[in-house]
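Narrative of activities, Objective 1.

The group set out to show that a structural description can be obtained from nothing but a protein's sequence at a throughput compatible with the screening campaign. Below is one input-output pair from the validation batch, recorded exactly as produced.
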Amino acid sequence: MKKIIVACGAGIATSTVALRKLQDGLEARGKANDVKFTQTSLAELPSTTNGYDLIVTTAQGGSGYGIPVISGLGLITGIGVDKVIDDVIKTLEL
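Output recorded for this entry:
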């Protein structure tokens, strides 16, 4: 089971949208059962990254924790949604 943190500035609005689109995309590709999600804010990342495999963020930040970071902005704008999902699958080797 791979673990993904979806983060945004406040940990509420855009991370919720991004998480749902990511879940839908992974489900459509038959990968949803292989992943567990946590939603948080960028400010809370230092206390939540332990044991996670990937950070998907809709804002600037998220690096420096020793795990890969993927920009999830495409999940919000609708431009490049498939690329974000493909990058997640590739990064996690799902």
